[in-house]
Amino acid sequence: VSAHRQSISGLQANTVYHYQLQSRDQAGNLAASGDRTFTTAIQPDVTSPVMSDVTISSILDHSATIRWTTDEPTTMQVMYGLSASYGQFSKFDRNRSSTHQVILSGLLANTTYHFQVKAKDAAGNESVSGDREFKTMVDNTNPVLGVVSITNVNSNRATIRWTTNEPASSKVYISQTSPLNRSTAITYAVSAFVTDRTIILTGLDARLTYHIQVESTDATGHTSLSGEQSFQTR
User: How many Å is the Cα radius of gyration of the chain?
Assistant: First the structure.
């Protein structure tokens, strides 16, 4: 024949092979090609990463550190919550590594948490650990207030925002006099326990100076109060 095809099997994946072609005509004349090469394809990775050494350390009243290792570089994420239904997720880390650490913060004190760790390799194979538990410590400290910002001020409203290091309820005291007297000041209260809160003050009068203080109270009743700040409506 004048058109030729030959299949070769039993080769190793991701390997360079050398080959030569030979053809002989009916008169017995032999022709041979020069040396040529080809590389076989990489064998697809269909094996899920193996997780080990899942540990819980540095357990405090509002945080805990989760560590684990994998047998190959993977992404990492922790699912956690008050039951095995979880509902909360740590930040997804796309940087693949074989050693992993996630710090869970903003937790409730003296509370049992369930968690699972999740890892995915470069081929998309995923592994999820079994359900595990830890209990946070009893809270004996006041919430730590972050920077209090006053934004979006116009003639009749202003936005107050701040953070805390643990879930807490919130109040904003507002008055036209300084020093501010919380017992007579107007109070805006939010009962939800969160770590990042925004309270919009409404019904203000134009071109007046207002003084505010913010207050946060955690689930065990510990309270922190900010210093007094002021702003002027437009």
Answer: 32
Entry pTM: 0.61
Distance (Å, whole) CA 81 – CA 79? 7
CA angle 227, 233, 234 (to 5 degrees): 150
Q: Left (φ > 0), alpha (ψ -120 to 50) or beta: where does 86 sit?
A: left
d(CA 100, CA 97): 7
Sheet strands (E) in 58-185: 63-81, 88-89, 93-105, 112-120, 126-128, 132-135, 149-151, 158-175
Which residue reads 């004190």 in tokens? 109
Read off the pLDDT of residues 46-55 as tens digits, 9 standing for 90 and up. 899 999 999 9
> 65 forms bridges with which residues in the sheet?
57, 103
Q: Which of 155, 132, 134, 133 is nearest to 60 (CA)?
A: 134
DSSP-assigned letters across all residues of 175-220 = ESSSS--TTTSEEEEEEEEEEEEEEEE-SPPTT-EEEEEEEEEETT
Tell me the residue type at 215.
Answer: E
> CA-CA distance, 189 to 201, in Å (whole number)?
11
Mean pLDDT by groups of 10 residues along the chain of 234 residues: 92 93 94 95 90 94 95 97 96 94 92 97 94 94 95 97 93 96 95 93 96 95 96 96
Q: Are 187 and 135 in contact (CB under 8 A)?
A: no
CB 224 within 8 A of CB 218: no
| Residue listed under structure tokens 């090469």 | 37
Is the link from the previous residue into 167 a cis peptide, with omega within 30 of 0?
Answer: no
Cα 228 from Cα 91, distance rounded (Å): 34
Looking at residue 219, its pLDDT comes to 87
